[in-house]
Design a protein that fits this description.
The chain has 272 residues and is mainly α. The chain has a single domain, classed as Orthogonal Bundle (MetI-like fold), CATH 1.10.3720. Helix content is 74%, strand content 0%. The chain has twelve helices and no strands. It has helices at residues 2-32, 36-41, 53-93, 99-109, 118-127, 134-157, 162-170, 175-186, 188-204, 207-212, 221-224, 237-267. The radius of gyration is 24 Å and the shape is globular. It starts with a helix and ends in a 5-residue tail after the last helix. It comes from Cohnella endophytica.
Length: 272
């Protein structure tokens, strides 16, 4: 009983923090189902009828751009995972002049704020004639994300038992076979972590697409959200519905990948 009484303030504090965290999401969902007059007369609560047509109107306006963002974010993930896994494997498996210097240079890229290289990055993409293209939205974030991904994967690869790789060497396996058949299968948690981090970064990237695109053909959904409009009756409910629709892929990703993500994040903390 005493333990329960002692724990009560802690649970109470957690409950308050949880309520404060979830309340904005509650308001977002409730407001997305209202027309303007309903929001005026009943701002905080649920108001009937629920106007699901806000969602259909919003989806018609941002649906194509969701496909653009899925393509851009997925390609960034594939590129980052491929580049960083190969780079990390080379740091762990091979000795060559300047290896430590190269790794320090890669780590230093993590210290550079993205805004600092925004203008040079724009000029480079402009010179390569990649403005307003998918490539222009993919390659710079891919290069930026590969630095941290290489660090995370190198740390994880170093924890793989060397006896497994030595046994594969003795059996005559080449580096490609060791990498594909041993290292990659054992590294799925960290690969999932890197994939999720970079997918979220690509999906939520606002500044770079705003700078690098100016047309609707390759515009990501995060830019399209600002252009959602409804009629006078619908008000901001349509725009809020668009925000919810655009977040659904991220929610699905969270549901599917929570377990491997947590496993990858915590893997470095339990190494002996």
């Amino acid at each position: 009983m005493n333990k329960k009484l002692l724990a009560a303030p802690h649970f109470g504090s957690l409950a308050i923090l949880l309520a404060l965290t979830l309340f904005p999401f509650y308001m977002l969902i409730v407001s997305s189902l209202k027309y303007t007059q309903q929001a005026i007369h009943n701002f905080w609560g649920v108001s009937f009828p629920l106007h699901m047509d806000n969602y259909s109107v919003a989806f018609k306006q941002i649906g194509p751009f969701i496909g653009n963002t899925v393509l851009i974010s997925s390609t960034i993930v594939i590129g980052v995972v491929l580049i960083s896994s190969l780079a990390a494997y080379s740091f762990v498996r091979f000795d060559y002049p300047g290896k430590q210097l190269f790794f320090v240079l890669i780590l230093s890229l993590m210290m550079i704020p993205g805004y600092l290289i925004l203008i040079p990055q724009f000029l480079l993409v402009q010179k390569l004639d990649m403005l307003n293209t998918y490539q222009g939205q993919i390659f710079p974030p891919m290069a930026f994300g590969a630095a941290m991904a290489t660090f995370l994967m190198k740390t994880f690869f170093e924890g793989i038992p060397k006896s497994l790789i030595e046994a594969a060497d003795m059996e005559g396996a080449g580096e490609r076979q060791i990498f594909i058949k041993i290292v990659i299968p054992l590294s799925l948690p960290i690969i999932a972590t890197v994939a999720i981090i970079n997918f979220l970064a690509g999906w939520n990237n606002y500044i770079w697409p705003l700078v690098a695109t100016n047309g609707d053909s390759v515009k990501p959904v995060i830019l399209a959200l600002s252009t959602i409009t409804g009629n006078m009756d619908q008000g901001v409910g349509v725009k809020l519905a668009g925000y919810i629709i655009s977040s659904i892929p991220l929610l699905l990703l969270f549901v599917v990948a929570t377990k491997p993500f947590i496993s990858g994040v915590t893997s470095g903390a339990v190494k002996g």
